[in-house]
Specification:
By secondary structure, the protein is α+β, with helices and mostly antiparallel strands. It contains three helices and nine strands, in the order ααββββββββαβ.
Length: 147
Amino acid sequence: MIAMPVSDKKNQETKEELTKSDTGEKEKYEDYAEKAASELEKVISRMEGAGKVKVMMTVSSSSEKVVEKDEETAEDEKQRTKNETTVYEETTVGQTPYVKKELVPTVEGVVVLCEGGDQPVVVQEITEAVEALFSVESHKIKVVKMK
């Protein structure tokens, strides 16, 4: 996935999301899983033989925020020292650490219910598509026939 800033308003919304409490972060992961599952449903439903599709996806409950840091290295005869200082930015709520990127949660498992879930070729195609899109091992993907 590639994320590109679109406008200052969007950047402000992103910064506000990053400062939410743990409850807010959990909701953010659930939103990510729901959006990813919805997009996956759209893709799979267009595959030949899949028919109607419903997807459930679980994600890890952690992400990593990479904060921008200034680094200074000093050397003398006996040792080398490295000092890191977090870069802060001014916002409407005061100073906050400047987050240069955030790694999204990892997809842990995917279940796909579809009308064509009893056809081996369809199951294989769906499994390969999920592996390609989310880097999930095939044993964590289950494709079953929808009733």
